[in-house]
Write a structure and sequence with these properties.
CATH topology: Alpha-Beta Plaits
Oligomer: single chain
CATH class: Alpha Beta
Low-confidence stretches: 1-15
Order of helices and strands: HEHEEHE
Largest sheet: 4 strands, antiparallel
Number of strands: 4
Strand content: 15-25%
Number of domains: 1
Radius of gyration: 18 Å
Number of helices: 3
Strand order of the largest sheet: 2-3-1-4
Mean pLDDT: 79
Shape: globular
């Protein structure tokens, strides 16, 4: 019985713990993964992908953020970016909010966004990337 109580207390404690702060220092190489809500498709066809790539290029140019790689899957995306003067959180908010609005307009959906709230971000050690 004690083990059950301790386990429940542990679960309650971990659920209210805030997430760790994200590293957003200029010059850090980051692998970013953003997924669709409940694994829904965020790219229905080539038009969606072209729209995203166009917006992505515009945001990268405006923020002077270097991109080393990207991959668009039907229900998620991967980006390899080096942080610049504009925080990655700001860049991703601009990119994903704009894309979600155009996606919803085009596909006549009423979802506020098609992405999960939290994108996964991982710092990458520099190996051979300039």
């Amino acid at each position: 019985m004690k083990i059950c109580v301790y386990f429940l207390l542990f679960l309650s404690y971990t659920e209210i713990m805030p997430r760790k702060a994200r590293i957003d220092v200029p010059g850090v190489l980051q692998h970013i993964i953003s997924r669709g809500i409940e694994h829904q498709k965020i790219f229905q066809d080539d038009t969606d992908r072209e729209n995203f790539v166009h917006r992505f290029g515009r945001v990268l140019t405006e923020t002077s953020t270097p991109c080393y790689a990207w991959a668009l899957m039907p229900n998620h995306l991967h980006l390899l970016l080096r942080t610049g003067n504009v925080p990655i959180t700001t860049l991703m908010r601009r990119l994903l909010t704009g894309y979600a609005a155009s996606f919803n307009l085009r596909h006549k959906t009423a979802m506020a966004t098609c992405f999960r709230n939290v994108s996964n971000r991982y710092c990458v050690r520099k190996t051979r990337i300039p």
